[in-house]
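In this section we turn from sequence analysis to structure. A common task in structural bioinformatics is to predict how a protein folds when a small molecule is present, because the ligand can shape the pocket around it. The inputs are simple: the amino acid sequence and a SMILES string for the ligand, here zinc ion. Study the lines below before reading on.
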Amino acid sequence: MKIIVKKTGNRGRGVFAARALRKGEFILSLKGKVISTEEMLAASKYHLDHMGAIGKDLCMIFGYPEKYINHSCSPNVFERNRELFAMKTIKKGEELFYDYAISDVDDQWSMRCKCGSRNCRKVINGHFFQLPLNIKVKYYPYLDDWFKKEFRHELKPIKRLWNDKCKKEAKHKKRR
Ligand SMILES: [Zn+2]
């Protein structure tokens, strides 16, 4: 088993690595209930806190165990095309976090964040385009396919910056 659900100190339950995870490693498939945006508007606060966009006008009410993955402004996992992957190397016992604003445009929902990371946004919502520009560029490779397709126009300048960043890093590597 790759993960384990446990109680955290102050965030309710959380999901932890049961063993070390490699950067880019597949962790699990999301198997929640898929609903329309219309149905989402009628959902309870509990469900609203445990769901995410998975397509145009489609949301998923997360199932077990992914609904227990907490948010951090410095995430170590990401969800793409209904699958969860490690964003970086994760040590055994480390808690898994994703950023709720990746691949979503929900500015109705918000939450006070106490993740404690250096770049904590304090109050978070689920709206990718309201993120600071440097964060949008950093998250570009983690976006869902449907999101890239749906917002290809809005994402153009971000994609360009991401490509520039990759080129710069490649040059830097060569020089070393
Ligand atoms: Zn935070």
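The helical segments are 37-41, 45-48, 133-139, 145-150, 152-175. As an exercise, try to locate the residues that line the zinc ion site and compare them with your own expectations.
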